[in-house]
């Protein structure tokens, strides 16, 4: 018994010594366990990134079939189609009607998984008759919610307009006829893309309800959808490709550049906490939450180039709207609000539109370095007060290097911060949108030519300008929010003011983020 008691005493002394040693070590080296925890977390994060794979899905034939979702159990005899075109074959998915006797326009299709057909006209007067077990159903070629639009053609050159209408992406010819539509929900930036090899791809950004936005920021989380020349989906991209600098984060709705199939420039609004804001700017001492525009050029699932605004602290002080870095007026500061980019054909670098800085910024496509700033607080080209633009959107290059942009012309901020006092004379100043052309000498930092075309309208958010005919100064204007304009878009001769084509939606509050025109 004595030996056992002695053994217990020895064990107790050893345990006590171990505990004291451990506590002493933690007091002397408090950061080691935290560092190990961070290291473990970092390893876990890296492991997650390795597990991420760029999803190049295989879209089998049935993926692009048009659902024929007739509810046999419901007392309903008229249906819309999700998608339709007069330019290619359409294939209806009949699998939901398996086991029933089915005829389409009198043709027996019973037992078939699908039915392929062509159609000459999309209109309220041209419908399909589907008979199921002897009961007739009308299937509209023109969805009911799309009927009732109006247009004016005053001599526009033949072509096709691309825009969103209600919940549809739409392609409309200059005769006012819809030649393609697809009900996708909330979509942005529907357009045609032609590769260097001459291949045609259509693309759009569609809101992805499975991805959540940060409240109070003017953007939507989206995925990019790419279709071939027959409107078949051939690729989708939902996220940034994660790497050492960024995690997987959903795309946003402002821009998508299609260089080729599986080769894109994508953009994302990246919520981030930063501690590199210059000390002379009011900020959250515990770290400021900002929205960091992030660009990636990706090809076959690999990142070729990446840029993130927060890597350039000099940009913080250029913000003029939504720039509360204390986070007292909002959870995140949307200090840049990227909304457009274009590739400079002269040197292959990029220019981006920073709406909340009222600036255009040129980026080196190899290094990401900021090459110059045009407009806003850090303007390097000596723009006069009359030449400055405000809260601009879509920008592009003309053949001689001139920059074309949609100048929204805001005087007051749309964001909750900064607050303009009620007695400020700014409240009495007229806000007007204009189309601007600015040609610059990049080397000598000079403006070589400047033209501004006031529209007499005001679009406080969104909008686009696309040059259609440089010789005759004809531009397609997408009105965006169009506060005092009922039209979705207008094809206009800027020199004469003549309106060559105007599209009016059934609901004047219906908004298309951008509008385009192409010859096919």
TrEMBL record:
Basic and acidic residues bias spans: 35-53
MF term (GO), any: aryl sulfotransferase activity
Record bears the keyword Transmembrane helix: yes
Pfam families found in the cross-reference section: Arylsulfotrans
Transmembrane residue ranges: 7-28
Chain segments annotated as coiled-coil in the UniProt record: none
Highest rank taxon of the organism: Bacteria
Keyword terms, alphabetized: Membrane, Transmembrane, Transmembrane helix
Positions of region (Disordered): 34-53
Protein name: Arylsulfotransferase N-terminal domain-containing protein
Originating species: Lentibacillus kapialis
């Amino acid at each position: 018994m004595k030996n056992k008691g002695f053994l217990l005493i020895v064990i107790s002394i050893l345990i006590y010594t171990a505990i004291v040693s451990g506590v002493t070590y933690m007091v002397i080296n408090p950061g080691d366990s935290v560092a190990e925890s961070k290291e473990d977390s970092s390893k876990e994060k890296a492991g997650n990134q390795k597990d991420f794979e760029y999803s190049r899905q295989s879209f089998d034939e049935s993926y692009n079939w048009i659902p024929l979702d007739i509810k046999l159990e419901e007392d309903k005899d008229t249906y819309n189609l999700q998608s339709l075109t007069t330019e290619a074959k359409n294939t209806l998915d009949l699998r939901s009607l398996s086991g029933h006797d089915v005829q389409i326009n009198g043709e027996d299709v019973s037992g078939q998984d699908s039915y392929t057909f062509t159609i000459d006209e999309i209109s309220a007067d041209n419908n399909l008759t589907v008979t199921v077990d002897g009961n007739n159903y009308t299937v509209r070629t023109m969805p009911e919610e799309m009927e009732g639009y109006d247009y004016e053609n005053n001599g526009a050159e033949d072509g096709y307009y691309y825009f969103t209408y209600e919940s549809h992406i739409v392609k409309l010819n200059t005769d006012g006829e819809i030649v393609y539509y697809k009900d996708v929900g909330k979509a942005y930036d529907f357009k045609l893309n032609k590769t260097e090899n001459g291949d045609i791809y259509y693309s759009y950004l569609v809101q992805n309800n499975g991805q959540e936005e940060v409240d109070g920021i003017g953007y939507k989380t989206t995925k990019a959808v790419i279709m071939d020349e027959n409107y078949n989906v051939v690729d989708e991209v939902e996220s940034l490709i994660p790497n050492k600098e960024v995690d997987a984060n959903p795309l946003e709705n402002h821009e998508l550049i299609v260089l080729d199939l599986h080769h894109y420039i994508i953009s994302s609004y990246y919520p981030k906490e930063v501690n590199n804001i210059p000390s002379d700017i009011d900020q959250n001492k515990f770290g400021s939450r900002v929205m960091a525009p992030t660009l990636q050029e990706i090809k076959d699932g690999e990142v070729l180039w990446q840029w993130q605004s927060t890597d350039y602290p000099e940009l913080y002080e250029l913000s003029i709207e939504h720039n509360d870095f204390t986070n007292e007026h909002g959870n995140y500061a949307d200090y840049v609000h990227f909304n457009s980019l274009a590739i400079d054909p002269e040197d292959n670098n990029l220019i981006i539109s920073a709406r909340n800085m009222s600036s255009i910024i040129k980026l080196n496509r190899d290094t990401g370095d900021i090459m110059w700033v045009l407009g806003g607080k850090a303007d390097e080209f000596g723009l006069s007060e009359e030449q400055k633009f405000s809260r601009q959107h879509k920008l592009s290059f003309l053949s001689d290097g001139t920059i074309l942009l949609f100048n929204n012309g805001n005087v007051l901020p749309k964001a909750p911060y900064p607050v303009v006092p009620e007695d400020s004379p700014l409240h009495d100043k007229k806000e007007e949108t204009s189309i601007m052309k600015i040609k610059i000498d990049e080397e000598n930092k000079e403006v070589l030519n400047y033209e501004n075309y006031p529209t007499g309208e005001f679009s406080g958010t969104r909008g686009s300008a696309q040059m259609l005919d440089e010789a005759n100064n004809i531009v397609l204007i997408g009105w965006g929010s169009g506060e005092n304009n009922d039209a979705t878009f207008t094809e206009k001769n800027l020199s004469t003011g003549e309106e060559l084509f105007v599209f009016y939606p059934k609901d004047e509050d219906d908004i298309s983020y951008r509008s385009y025109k192409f010859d096919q």
